[in-house]
Amino acid sequence: MTKITTMNRKKYEEELILLQLNDSQFPIGSYSHSYGLENYILKNLIKDSNDTKKYLINYLKTSFYYNDLLAVYLAYNYFIEEKKDELLELNIRLQAQKSQKELREASEKLGSRLISTVHKMDIAMPQKYYDYLDYHKKNDIIIHHAVAYALITASLDIDLTASLLSFAFNMAQNLVITAVKTVPISQFDGQKILYEIYDLIIYLVTKIDKLDEDYYFTAYPGVEVASMQHEVLYSRLYMS
């Protein structure tokens, strides 16, 4: 068995905190959002595991990649480089970009609950972290989920690539869980899909630093329309 040292203990703790923060049961309510997927299912556009996989791949490499995953990458670097105003502008841009009410409110609430839950866990955070939270509060700017996650992982000096991989896998996992419950597909098929998109997640994370700024926060009408239609459903299982 490997001997525990100060150096490898920190590495182990980083891995554990990422597992905890990105657990589907972490109490911030991420399991209650489908991000428009429920509407696709109700319209019979997603009927089986093959449809689920196609949807997941398209969602991850378009809307999620150019918005929330990008926001984690930018926010992490802004925090490390002490760019307070750029971080503030990032949250303002996310607020404007998320024009659909349900998606915007989901991002706001998940961010707020993530910060609140981490605070209640009594994790030792650097003063810089609290300064950035206060700076947003002073300017009356809401901290979105992706930014809150980046602030926490950067404050804890967790590796950026590991943070991005965990964040992306968490999103994929939540969508697969939604599909298992509502399409429905089997638990086995769900796990098979997650395993089969490992390469995609790795590819997206490792190329995000080369993304052209012209593509930052690109909008995808299909997801937006599905989310808007979801707002007026007579009956629904998910909040978005």
From TrEMBL:
Required for maturation of urease via the functional incorporation of the urease nickel metallocenter. Pfam families: UreF (PF01730). This is Urease accessory protein UreF. PANTHER family: UREASE ACCESSORY PROTEIN F. UreD, UreF and UreG form a complex that acts as a GTP-hydrolysis-dependent molecular chaperone, activating the urease apoprotein by helping to assemble the nickel containing metallocenter of UreC. The UreE protein probably delivers the nickel. GO terms for molecular function: nickel cation binding. InterPro entries: UreF, UreF_sf. Keywords: Chaperone, Cytoplasm, Nickel insertion. Belongs to the UreF family. It comes from the Bacteria. Its main location: cytoplasm. It comes from Anaerococcus prevotii (strain ATCC 9321 / DSM 20548 / JCM 6508 / NCTC 11806 / PC1). GO terms for cellular component: cytoplasm. It is found in: Cytoplasm.
